[in-house]
Amino acid sequence: MLVKTFGAAVQGINATIVTIEVNVGQGIRFMIVGLPDNAVRESHERVVSALKYNGYDLPRKQVIVNMAPADIRKEGSAYDLPLAIGIMAASEKIPAEELDKYVIMGELSLDGGLQPIKGVLPIAIKAREEKFKGFILPKQNAREAAVVNNLDVYGVENIKEVIEFLKGELTLEPTVVNTREEFYEHLNLADIDFADVKGQENVKRALEVSAAGGHNIIMVGPPGAGKSMLAKRIPTILPPLTLHEALETTKIHSVAGNIDSNTSLISQRPFRSPHHTISDVALVGGGTFPQPGEISLAHNGVLFLDELPEFKRTVLEVMRQPLEDRKICISRAKFAIEYPASFMLVASMNPCPCGYYNHPTRECVCAPGLVQKYLSRISGPLLDRIDIHIEIIPVPFEKMSELKESESSNEVRKRVVKAREIQELRFRDVDGVYCNAQMSSKLLRTYAQPDKEGSELLKNAMNRLNLSARAYDRILKVSRTIADLDDCENILPQHIAEAINYRNLDREGWAG
Known about the structure:
The chain is of the alpha/beta class. It is 36% helix and 16% strand.
C-alpha cells in the first residue's frame, strides 16, 4: 500500500515541503531514496526500536521510501517521525485519511520519545502557506511554531501519542501563543542599563549617535576603560524590534537551533560577541551542512568584536561584503543559500600591544613603530566601513565614586527613536536604505550637504588634521545623524565639528 506523509526541508531561512512516499509490498528489504544524508538513512534503526518499544512491529515486507522533491538534499534526524507514521499507515496499522492535513516532524529516541529539532518556525510558516491544517512536532518546539497563526500546532512527547491521535483514540490540544501580547510584554525587558556606566559621557554620546544613524563604531582604549561594558548596553538604546523584525530574527535563530522550549519569539535585539579565535565559516556561515554564522545571528542587532586586531585577517576580510550588502550568499558547487546580515558592527581594541599608548598616567612600553604595526592588522577597506572612531580613557576615581545617577537607556532610546523616525520619513521612497549609515554618495549630495561655513570647517579639518579621503563621506553621514538628533533640517558647523572628532584613527600621525 502506498501512503504519503509530509515533512519539510530547511534551506537558508526558508522551508520546502517534502512529500514522504512509503510503499509496503512484497519483499524483505528497506530502502530510502530521494537524496537522504546519513542521519536520514540511520533513521531505520531508530524507527524500528521506537515502534517495538511501544508495542508495534515493522512490517516484514519490502518498504520503499521516496522523499520528494528528490533533487533537494534531506538532512538531519527530524524525518524520523514522518517516516515511522508513513510506515505504520502503509502497513494499515493506522488510518491514512488524515495524513495529508498535517506536516509531521520530529527526531525519535529508541523508546519512542521525541527530541527537539531545528528550523521549526520556517517550517510552520511554510505549512500555513501550503494550507495544511496542523503541524505535529516535539513538545519542546511547540511554542516556537505556535507563533504562526491559522495553524494548529500539536506538541507531542512520544510517538504513541501521535499514533493514538491519528487513530482518533486521543485528543490533543493545540498550543496557543498570543504572539503580539508576548512580544510587547518582553519588548523592553533588559537586565542592563546605560545608567550603570559612570562617567564616559563623550563615549556615551558617540554610541547614541552611532545607534541613531546605524553607524558602525570602534572604541580604542586601555584595558579596564569600560569598552565591553558600554558595548553590551548598545542594544538597550537601539529602537525596539518591530514585529516583522522579531519574526525574521527568530527564523534565523530557529534554523541555528538557538530557541529554547520557553521562548516563542525573540523580542530583544540580538547581541553577539564571538571570541577572536572564531573561523571565517563560523563568522559568516556555511559549512558541510550550511548554518547561519555570527553575522546572521546578529541580524537586526549588534555584532561586537572585542580586541579587533586579535582576529585573524582572513576572518575580518570576509565581513567586508556583508557590511555593504547586509546579506551573505553562501555559494557551493551544488547549492547557494542566502542569509540576511543587517547588523551594527561594534568593535573595540587596545591602542597598542601593551595597551597603554596615550594613557594619561601609565607609560607605553611598546617599541617604536609597534603601535602603527598593531593598528595595521585592521585593513584600510574594513576601517573604511566603520564610521565612528572614539578614544576611551579610564574613568577617574572621583567619577566612579559619584552617587549621581547617570542617564538611563530609556531616556537615550527616546532620542534615538525620534532620529530614526526622521530618517524613515526621509528615505521612504528609497529601496534598501533605512538609516543614514546606508546613504550612497548620491544621497549624501542630496541630504547631507553642509552650508558654506560648514564646508570651510571641513576643508580646514581635512588639511590640518591630514584626514584621509575616505573620512570625508563618513563625516558627512555622521553629521547628518547629529543634525537629526538635534531635529535640525540643515547640517550646521557644530554638527560637522562633532563628526570630525569621531575620526581619530584617520588622523595622520595618530599612531606615532
